[in-house]
Amino acid sequence: MQSETTPGGLRLTLKVVFYGPALSGKTTNLTQLHDRLRPQRKGELMILETQNDRTLFFDMLPIGLRQANGLDLRLKLFTVPGQVQHDSTRKAVMSRADGVVFVADSDPLQQDNNAAAFDNLAGNLQKLGMSIENLPLVVQFNKRDLPAAVPEAELQCVWRDTPWSPLVMASALHGEGVVETFERLLERLYGGLDEFALATKYGLDKAGFVEQLSRSN
Amino acid sequence: MQDFDDDPLFSELLKEPRQHQLLGLLGELSGATWRFHAEPKFSAQAVQYQLNDLAWLDCEDPSQNTDAARRLVEFVLSYVGKYRLAASVHLDATEAGYAELQRQHEALKLSEQRYRDLSGSLQLRVDEQVATIKKTQQQLYDSARLRSVGQLAAGVAHEINNPIGFISSNLTVAQEYLGELVEKLPADQRDDFLIGDFAHLLQESSVGASRVAAIVADLKTFSNINQEPYQNCNIDALLATVIRLIQAEFDSSVAIDWVQGDVQLLLGYPAHLSQAFFNVLVNAAQAVNDGGKVTVRSRSLEGGGIEVIIYDSGPGMSPEIVERVFEPFFTTRDVGAGSGLGLTVARDVALAHRGNIQLESVVGEGTRVRLVLRGVTA
């Protein structure tokens, strides 16, 4: 989180990272958000170097809103490379993240990779001085359109006693569940912004924050 | 700390010469003059990078398409920014990876050093352990043997003590009777050879019996049969008596040099202590029988206790003998000349007084016995 008081008001930049195992659909989530979201301000989707369509560094999409009362709010949405060998890059991108969307794979054969990636997330957060318990985090199970996808009831049951229940189901390729996931994250993100008194100083309450940033066509 | 995704300044993305180059190109295309401004300005358009206003662009000719020019600049910026982002995240990742590698390298070096140290000291530690085991084994063996020898000695001493007592006294009486018998015999019936030899036999038996009695007394001390009460002993006084006894036994032919230490009183068994000093001194006196000198020294030790050193400049003993001097019944003297219990008793007495005894000897130079006594606990 970067905040700066300007003569006219407040500039606030939040960082959201899409994390998850390789090929779980992190970049697809971001391209879908780029296509669907209609926030007040939306920048270019920046897709950095890829190799055979696999993310090497990260992707980035900036969105934001500017209010006449001086609030300049920006969200930078990042993806990380999912492949195991890019851990240093993942860690670099994760640095100073304000919220995380964990994109898991519904393929029954990928459940071990989901778990490994989640452990990796927890470990990297710890190394960066953050705690997975305290960070706004939404867990999405993507690829619900797979015929052999692990049944939702089973997944919800497994995650029931964690702080991240209920899970969000998505089919990012078809744009399903992507915006819902993002909305859920925005709700949790807003909870960490108390210090800026957005509602009282700038008239931006939680509902307005979520609606304006996740508005879609 | 600068993060790779910190918002860059306009001049960081596009250095001043590049800005002029870009403005020049725009000028060539449009035939008008373009300018970048650091502050918002009327008629100027904000140039954005990642939704951040970096600079403001305007043209002296208001009829120009400022919007298209601004979008062209932003297009260029997005590619410059993309390269910049990729480069800095790569740098961050590489540095983190390198730092991690160095950390692992340090950890490896540390663990390697530990193993190197360990292997260096391993032989030393094994040797130490082996020595400890050997020593403990020897002590165990010694103490077990001593215990069984002690039990045996106690039994033998007990069984022999009474018979040897009446044998001795009977022999003395028999010698008196013989004298009386001789007087009562008529002179012509005396066989001088027979009578003389008989007296000699009785005399020899009497000496033998007292030797047996002495061994039994040693055994009793050794096996601690007599549980006498302990008392405050003046070690110097005990030593004085023992030295007198020795000189009497050796007809004052032994030179004994006594350095008296005015030591404090010691709680102990006086008879046993005298016995111990006597046993050590007899050995020393015998060692210097053919010339030489015995030195006796007593002194109080710092931290309590008394040290008695008995040194003789006799012929000394070989290491093989020194190793065994405290063994019960070990003797280098002819059979019958010594019981082999002298130093064993001395050691037992020292141990009973919470002390110890050490013996050093060099062939041709002499023997030094050091007794340390701390007194029995009340």
What features would you describe in this structure?
The complex is a heterodimer of chains A (217) and B (378). Chain A is an alpha/beta fold and 217 residues long. Chain A has a single domain, classed as Rossmann fold (3-Layer(aba) Sandwich), CATH 3.40.50.300. Chain A contains seven helices and eleven strands. In chain A, the strands form two sheets. In chain A, strands 1, 2, 3, 4, 7, 8, 9, 10 and 11 form a nine-stranded mixed beta sheet that branches. In chain A, strands 5-6 form a two-stranded antiparallel sheet. In chain A, strand 9, helix 3 (111-127) and strand 10 form a beta-alpha-beta unit. In chain A, helix 5 (178-191) packs antiparallel against helix 7. Chain B is an alpha+beta fold. Chain B has a five-stranded mixed beta sheet, with helices on one face. In chain B, strands 1-3-2 form a three-stranded antiparallel beta sheet, with helices on one face. In chain B, strands 4-6 form a two-stranded antiparallel sheet. Chain A binds chain B through residues 2, 13, 15, 41-44, 46, 48-49, 57-58, 60, 62-64, 74, 76, 78, 86, 88-89, 91-93, 95-96, and chain B through 3-7, 48, 50-52, 78, 81-82, 85-86, 89-90, 92-94, 96-97, 100.
